[in-house]
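TICKET: design request
STATUS: open
ATTACHED STRUCTURE:
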């Protein structure tokens, strides 16, 4: 392929001429890049829409710019799990196309997948025109998608070595603790001051409550409504589950706990700067209804759900602290990052409150 002046202008994180050359080798006959745009500014990874000759749309995923947490944003893992699930089964995912481990192309490893038609439902404004029956249908579809992930036969899918389920929650506590330390160092390097004493007490409390290991299950790692593409007509469905960068084998209830932390209800007093606030709209399941439906679909025991919800608050607080670090470094792409840091103390307090109550309800 000859790079010419007809290529579209670049966007942050993409060297268009280099990408065009690579694309010609990786997907022969795919055609010239005619447009490229940022689909998601990446509170996590960056997602771009690429239009090719003839109007075909593909999607590129790469790590964020700036401060990147160690072991996070692994494009190879995300590509592998999507490719495995795309071969069959009940988990809806986009079709993968090609993976690039040469960081010289755009400055980081990345992969391409087919574009999936669907809506990212996130805000209360997104609920406009959505009936209560459709909202309930979306809740049901999301519960089925989460159950399908956790009931996946990992050996049959070729994912039997995708993680180390033994000691999963203990390693998670250690891993996110290291991520917290890394982000705190990055924030201090910017000259910002930040006092969050409740973090250490929470880490200690969680360490005292670590559950025993269960069977190896596929976990998504960041499962929520706005990490899925939804269709409303003719019937509500999840067209694709996306953002698999933190997927591994481990404890499935860690996924459920995080989903419930993200899940907003109309009566919530403490608001988070992430998650799908649309679930507070009429018709959506309550957190309790969603958990009970999940239990029906999987048969899993939810007796210790308070621990998993508190742990999810801890994990999300660490993730938001990392995003806040990138924002302070002026390394974010897109809008809405200025409010992310305020969510960290809210999550730490919510975790303590959940453990104090001994129940998520």
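STATUS: resolved
RESOLUTION: sequence designed for all positions
ATTACHED SEQUENCE:
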């Amino acid at each position: 392929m000859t790079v010419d002046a007809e290529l579209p202008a670049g966007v942050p994180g993409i060297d268009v001429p280099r990408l065009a050359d690579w694309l010609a080798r990786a997907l022969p006959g795919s055609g010239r890049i005619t447009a490229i745009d940022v689909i998601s500014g990446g509170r996590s990874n960056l997602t771009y829409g690429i239009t090719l000759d003839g109007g075909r749309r593909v999607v590129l995923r790469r790590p964020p710019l700036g401060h990147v947490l160690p072991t996070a944003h692994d494009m190879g893992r995300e590509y592998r799990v999507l490719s495995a699930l795309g071969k069959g089964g009940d988990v809806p995912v986009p079709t993968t196309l090609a993976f690039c481990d040469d960081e010289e192309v755009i400055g980081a490893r990345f992969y391409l997948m087919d574009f999936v038609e669907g809506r990212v439902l996130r805000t209360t404004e997104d609920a406009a025109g959505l009936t209560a029956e459709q909202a309930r249908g979306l809740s049901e579809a999301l519960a089925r998608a989460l159950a399908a992930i956790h009931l996946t036969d990992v050996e049959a899918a070729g994912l039997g070595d995708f993680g180390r389920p033994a000691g999963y929650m203990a390693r998670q506590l250690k891993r996110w603790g290291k991520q917290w330390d890394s982000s705190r160092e990055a924030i201090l390097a910017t000259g910002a001051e930040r006092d969050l004493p409740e973090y250490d007490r929470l880490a200690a409390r969680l360490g005292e409550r670590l559950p025993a290991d269960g069977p190896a299950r596929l976990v998504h790692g960041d499962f929520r409504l706005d990490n899925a593409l939804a269709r409303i007509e003719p019937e509500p469905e999840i067209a694709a589950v996306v953002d698999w960068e933190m997927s591994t084998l481990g404890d499935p209830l860690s996924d459920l706990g995080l989903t419930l932390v993200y899940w907003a209800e109309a009566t919530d007093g403490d608001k988070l700067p992430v998650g799908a606030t649309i679930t507070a709209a009429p018709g959506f399941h309550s957190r309790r209804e969603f958990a009970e439906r999940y239990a029906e679909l999987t048969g899993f025991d939810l007796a210790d759900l308070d621990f998993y919800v508190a742990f999810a608050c801890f994990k999300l607080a660490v993730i938001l602290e990392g995003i806040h670090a990138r924002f302070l470094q002026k390394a974010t792409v897109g809008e809405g990052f200025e409010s992310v840091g305020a969510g960290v103390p809210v999550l730490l307090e919510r975790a303590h409150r959940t453990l104090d109550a001994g129940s998520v309800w």
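CLOSING REMARK: The longest helix spans residues 305-328. Residues 1-5 have pLDDT under 50 and may be disordered.
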